[in-house]
């Protein structure tokens, strides 16, 4: 077993819980780099990983878990966190290899439930908190392209074909100004901040293609 948790109290608490159940911990670390080193060295039956760890406390834990699964194929990973980091959680759960769990710390009802999850994931099963599932399903349903009007989606579709503003205006039989207004609305609804017109067009098209 390897534990990756930046809070020393939580790290030692989980270590003690596992020890009380006769589960040996090969390493208990506080950051993603050390997690990767530990799983590569020890090849554990399971890695228990927090999401937010040093240095930025955003998504280092999940990114390290994905890297660990790549470095040690079929490494079981149990994420134990206060947060649902949707993007990387979806990547972790979607690889189809099993041996993965995601529990929210405040929703673990008792020690027996946690230990059961540890054994289940270590055996190659899954254990996903219902709140995690709900948030990931909501993320799947949310697509900013869906907020566009039919005309804006039409404009974006023509952008995806590589048409210029002038060509789009000619195709839709509207003015150049109308096309510029539609494209401005598209950028706003897709949350694309000003960073160069061409760059935003590419990002908008990618959002359209991923829909």
From TrEMBL:
Matching InterPro entries: CheY-like_superfamily (IPR011006), NreC/VraR/RcsB-like_REC (IPR058245), Sig_transdc_resp-reg_C-effctor (IPR016032), Sig_transdc_resp-reg_receiver (IPR001789), Tscrpt_reg_LuxR_C (IPR000792), WalR-like (IPR039420)
4-aspartylphosphate: residues bearing it: 50
Pfam families associated with the record: GerE, Response_reg
Superkingdom, taxonomy of origin: Bacteria
One function term, GO molecular function aspect: DNA binding
Listed GO biological process terms: phosphorelay signal transduction system; regulation of DNA-templated transcription
Ribosomal protein listed as a keyword: no
Keywords: DNA-binding, Phosphoprotein, Transcription, Transcription regulation
Keyword flag Transmembrane helix: no
PROSITE patterns linked to this entry: HTH_LUXR_2, RESPONSE_REGULATORY
Residues annotated as domain HTH luxR-type: 141-211
Chain ranges of the Response regulatory domain: 1-120
SUPFAM superfamilies found in the cross-reference section: C-terminal effector domain of the bipartite response regulators, CheY-like
The protein's name in its UniProt record: DNA-binding response regulator
Source species: Actinokineospora fastidiosa
């Amino acid at each position: 077993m390897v534990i990756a948790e930046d809070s020393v109290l939580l790290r030692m608490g989980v270590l003690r819980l596992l020890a009380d159940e006769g589960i040996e911990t090969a390493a208990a670390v506080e950051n993603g780099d050390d997690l990767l080193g530990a799983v590569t060295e020890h090849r554990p039956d399971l890695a228990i990983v927090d999401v937010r760890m040093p240095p930025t406390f955003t998504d280092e834990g999940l990114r390290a878990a994905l890297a660990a699964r790549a470095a040690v194929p079929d490494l079981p990973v149990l994420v134990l966190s206060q947060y649902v980091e949707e993007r990387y959680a979806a990547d972790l759960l979607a690889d189809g290899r099993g041996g993965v769990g995601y529990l929210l710390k405040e929703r673990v009802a008792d020690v027996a439930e946690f230990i059961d999850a540890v054994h289940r994931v270590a055996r190659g099963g899954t254990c996903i908190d219902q709140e995690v599932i709900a948030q990931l399903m909501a993320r799947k349903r949310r697509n900013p392209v869906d907020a566009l009007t039919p005309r804006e989606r039409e404009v974006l579709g023509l952008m995806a074909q590589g048409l210029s503003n002038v060509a789009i205006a000619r195709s839709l039989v509207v003015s150049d100004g109308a096309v510029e207004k539609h494209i401005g609305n598209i950028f706003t609804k897709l949350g694309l901040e000003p960073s160069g017109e061409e760059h935003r067009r590419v990002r908008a098209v990618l959002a359209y293609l991923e829909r």
